[in-house]
Amino acid sequence: MKLKKIIAAVAAAAVAVSTMAINAFAAEEYTAKLGFADTAWTFQDWEANTTVTGDGQYTIESTLVAGAADFGVFVIDIEGMFAGSPEATAVLDKIEVDGAELSFDASKIVYGDVEEKGNYRIEIFNTYGTTKDNPGVNQATPITTDLKVTFTVSGLGGAAEDAAPAETAEAPAVEATTDAPATGNAPVAVMVSVMAVAGAAAIAAKKRK
User: Fold this and answer.
1) How far is 80 from 205, CA to CA, in rounded Å?
2) What single DSSP character describes residue 126?
3) Is the Cβ–Cβ distance between 140 and 127 less than 8 Å?
4) At 2, phi and psi to the nearest 5?
5) Where are the domains of the chain?
């Protein structure tokens, strides 16, 4: 019976270590929302969104803005990402209007906590912001059917749920060490030690029989 209890403890410790390891490398999740209004404030969309689950490329699409004659406010806000993950960034990749790609000057797109609310903003055009006098896109672009915005998030860790795994070079061999990893995950090292001790005890108990 003692041997069974020891084996059960080892198994439980293994599950705990696996769970802790997953949590340690899990990325934060954030909601990225479109903010759009034409200059007349007739056509608007402040709700089209996607969930940012990690590093990768994302697209937000809206049909509510169909009929807009121009851009008055055109931004993407990743809610809470600037405050929660200050090392993370996002970059505008592509704008599509009615299925056709719209050119833009990447150097004039504004990024960061523009409104100082802890959100990470991609400001494409804003008649109330700095891009009004220095636009990176043709603000007088009409929308007939739909609008799509594609952007890439980096620095969160993890990966976008639908993103293809990136190809990487084979990692070099690392010499084994008994030192705890310097990642702030001391509990993981402790659990590994517990598993080793429990395993040794199980073997010793079996030999005594």
Assistant:
1) 53
2) E
3) no
4) -60, -40
5) 2-26+182-208, 30-154
Flag whether pLDDT at 158 surpasses 70.
yes
Encoded tokens for 14: 């293994």
Question: Rounded to whole angstroms, how far apart are CA atoms 110 and 83?
Answer: 17
- What's 175's DSSP letter? -
Alpha-carbon distance values, 22 to 76, 163, 175 (Å): 30, 19, 23
| DSSP annotation of 108 | G
pLDDT tens profile 131-147? 999 999 999 999 999 99
This prediction has a pTM of 0.67
Amino acid at 32: A
| Tokens 């990325």, located at residue | 27
